[in-house]
Amino acid sequence: MNEAVKQLESKAPEECADMTDVRAGVDALDRELVALLSVRFGYMRAAARIKEDRGTVRDETRKAAVIEAARRTAELRGLPAEAIADIWDRLVEASITYEMTEWDRLRP
To answer: What residues make up the domain containing 44?
Structure first.
């Protein structure tokens, strides 16, 4: 069984017997995903604190690399790679917006 599923204290997908099991697993996983996103956005706060120039917040080369890494990882796992790349594009854009907001907040 996948370690992440064990930590969720819900059934693994292959163990689900009905939609109640499926929904419980999805809901638990969604809570964990939001917790992980909280950590990711914490790194954006750190970046905003560390970067001296607001112009360095948006880095298109880094953005493309992050999205491509997610796409490749999804492909290796047999997931819909382009859908994952689209999700990551939105995630990275939201992260950039958040980092810019934090950068401005820290420098009144």
So the answer is: 1-50
78 and 37 within one domain: no
Angstrom distance (rounded) from CA 87 to CA 30: 15
For 43-69, the pLDDT digits (tens) are 999 999 999 999 999 999 999 999 999
Q: What is the pLDDT of residues 28-45, one digit of tens each?
A: 999 999 999 999 999 999
CA distance 16 to 65: 36
Q: What share of the chain is helix, strand, coil (3-state, %, to 5)?
A: 80, 0, 20
| Residue listed under structure tokens 């491509």 | 68
